Amino acid sequence: MHAERILEHYDIRPPRLSDAAALAAAYRHNRDHLAPYEPRRTDIFYTAAGQRESLGISLEAAQHGRAAGWLILAGESVVGRINLNTIVRGAAHSAHVGYWVDREHTGRGLATAAVEYACDAAVDLGLHRIEAGTLTDNLASQAVLRKCGFEQIGHARSYLFIDGAWGDHDIFQRILNDKPPG
């Protein structure tokens, strides 16, 4: 589980249980920045214990091929996260992508580089399609997806419960390849 450079000064690698304290610190640092775009979190989420539990669930899902994820690092500091969630095989061979970047590291192309990295990893996993949903007013995230070749395919009313309310989302997809499932 080595780190790979995705931009100058930024690396990406799969998370480890030992990252719990650093991830908790990153979430605490970005609590207000991320709140409008995420479900409401309990206080335990922002602790090393809470992140250890969350990482354990994520790592188990990855071990069973249901998810894949990476931490975005500046040196030893966690400055973002990207996940392929809900990996489906069968006829779909698809996943949903979700990501965030530290408030002090936005506007540098980091989210775009991370999404491209995740799409490349999805190809290596044999996936055909990646989907993403953004709140309708999250223009920055929509711009990232468009830069990465995603197209808007629809609008979902009351799609996810975000920041204490059901939010409308614009739905995007990127077709990775047209190979038959392997």
TrEMBL record:
UniProt entry tagged with the keyword Acyltransferase: yes
Protein name per UniProt: GNAT family N-acetyltransferase
PANTHER family listed in its UniProt record: [RIBOSOMAL PROTEIN US5]-ALANINE N-ACETYLTRANSFERASE, GNAT FAMILY, PUTATIVE (AFU_ORTHOLOGUE AFUA_3G00765)-RELATED-RELATED
Pfam families assigned to the protein according to its UniProt record, in alphabetical order: Acetyltransf_3
InterPro entries: Acyl_CoA_acyltransferase, GNAT_dom, N-acetyltransferase
Ion transport among keywords: no
GO molecular function: protein-N-terminal-alanine acetyltransferase activity
Domain named N-acetyltransferase: residues: 10-177
Highest taxon above the source species: Bacteria
GO terms for cellular component: cytoplasm
Keywords: Acyltransferase, Transferase
Species annotation: Solicola gregarius
